Amino acid sequence: MELGITGRWAIVCAASKGLGLACARALAKEGVNLVINARGNETLQAAADELRQLAPGIEVRTVAGDISEQAVREQVLTACAQVDILVNNAGGPPPGDFRDWQREDWLKALDANMLTPIELIKACVDGMAERGFGRIVNITSGAVKAPIDVLGLSNGARSGLTGFIAGLARQSRLAGNNVTINNLLPGPFDTERLHKTLSAAADANGTSVDSIGEQRRKQVPAQRFGQPDEFGAYCAFICSAHAGFLTGQNLLLDGGSYPGTF
Fold first, then answer.
1. Phi, psi (5° rounding) for residue 186?
2. What is the dihedral of CA 37, 61, 243, 255, to 10 degrees?
């Protein structure tokens, strides 16, 4: 399917690896110019080189740094000729027991996983509405719908973003001007983040990572972990010209793991 976004410009955060890089790959294949960001410059440049080889006709710009810092956000926004697509993404807070977390831990989680996406949206959304096209995708977590006990920082911060988006996406000045805002909720995808979660669970249960991983796979109706490029393809469709009637939704990609009807 032709997605109708060739020549558009996109910002993709945390795009040096994992789900962020998979989204950048999928957009690159559709001819979208990219501004990608991540904290580590070496891995970011490697990702940019991969994207340029994948889609030689597009432009790929990089901004290394912590996107939760205002100066880095300003650099990212300046690097993007015109923000047509924004993919908000950030590594989740570390797993653990809430009894061990201090106020600073909560503020850091909120800043990275709620307030930073909101700041980027605020910087982009009115221009999108004026031009009559905008796609914003927030990568959150399946834990928003089915919380994972050791991911309390993530559960709280991402749920806050979810509630904010539920109201913002339905503003007629946005939805009525072809600007959509949706959240993608990944379940167990084969990424570094998943392996860290499995490792924490293994430590807590006094067992091996392989054993915990096998148990986790068996709990997925699909009987496997998702592949990042599957996630990227889904993201690209949500950013497409065909997805203008889809907004304010929490879209769960978890291999059937969530047991509820709604």
1. -75, 140
2. -40
Of 3, 177, 15, which Cα lies nearest the Cα of 88? 15
Backbone φ and ψ for 147, nearest 5 degrees, come out as: -55, 145
Per DSSP, helices labelled H in 92-225 are 103-110, 116-131, 152-168, 172-175, 192-205, 209-219
Cα 86 to Cα 156: distance, rounded to the nearest angstrom: 23
Side by side, the strands of the sheet bearing 9-12 are: 60-64, 33-38, 9-12, 85-88, 134-139, 179-186, 250-253
pTM of full prediction above 0.85 = yes
Reduce the DSSP state of residue 181 to 3 states and report it: strand
Q: Which tokens go with 64? A: 């290394």
Model confidence over 120-143: pLDDT tens digits? 999 999 999 999 999 999 999 998
